[in-house]
Amino acid sequence: MISLERHYDNMYQQAVKKFRNGWYKADDLIDSAADDRFGLTLVIRPPQRITNEISKVLERIYRVEPGQYFYPESDMHITVTSIISCVEGFSLVQIDAEKYISVIKDCLRGFSAFNLELRGITASPECLMVQGFPGDGQLNQLRDKLKESFNNSGLLHSIDKRYTIRTAHSTIFRIKNDLKNQKCFIETINKYRDHEFGKFSAGRMELVYNDWYHRKKSLERLYEFPLKNHTG
Questions:
Q1: Which CATH number does the domain 4-28+38-223 belong to among 3.30.70.330, 3.30.365.10, 3.30.70.1150, 3.90.1140.10?
Q2: Neighbours of 171 (CB within 10 A)
Q3: Among 116, 121, 122, 158, which is 20 to 30 Å from 51 by CA?
Q4: So what's the pLDDT on residue 161?
């Protein structure tokens, strides 16, 4: 099976080719008042020292491409799983959030805090992402457990079944206008291909009702789940 590092590298190389040839995809919904895509997501928040480091890198990219969308620190996150993927018209009134919280609580029993390393930048034709590397297998074990539990719950969900490789990335930048200088943009992001953003212990998760971009102004935090500390 392909390694996570190799997967990130393949993503990056393919995206850079598209950036270079102008085949990237600008997001024309970022500033749209008509965008009503909402979902239900279990997320991890990086600590302040790491979001500060991400912001420093974004400031340098901003100097090259100021007309794009840069995630504020308040919106930075790592997705554990999209329980209900963002779809038009989804609202909390359509579900019983307490039942979702209960399923997640049951799933988290037996899981402890785990280490995450955020290192380097990868990309897609639409965005830039910080690469996340879980320190052990707990994150994907939890994802499997959540998928199984929600499949058996009878609750509405759309937990992703498409990928055998599951990342732990954080989206930090989206293309919303034509790139003004592809060459300089590529040179700049290349500098941070292996940048060390930091390591931390993921000791809590949040269930949130969110828009496509996880903007703070549109987000509702439904529950925070602490994870027990490592033992031994």
A1: 3.90.1140.10
A2: 20
A3: 158
A4: 58
